[in-house]
Amino acid sequence: MAAKEVMIVRPASLLIAAAAAVALPAAASPELAQKKNCLACHTVDKKIVGPAYKDIAAKYAGQKDAADRLADKIMKGGVGAWGQVPMPANPGVSAAEAKQLANWILSLK
User: Which of 10, 29, 91, 103 has the maximum number of C-beta atoms within 10 A of its C-beta?
Assistant: First the structure.
């Protein structure tokens, strides 16, 4: 008769696994920004055509609705918040992708 193995799962193991699963979408955001062509006009730390992502994060820091507002702007585009160069709409970006990008941008310091 073969002995059965018993696997003991500790709460700390579950927390680490959960944290890793939550961290993955944020880590994927630079790749998503590249895939959605955001990096043609933006970089993390300096202005190209549009503002640097760190400048956007600083401008919206502490605003509780910032992620929703940025996600909306990512999808619909806009003009005037950063000068007169318009940001075009991005119809190829879903609401979930826009929210992921917005949360990533807001996480930058």
Answer: 29
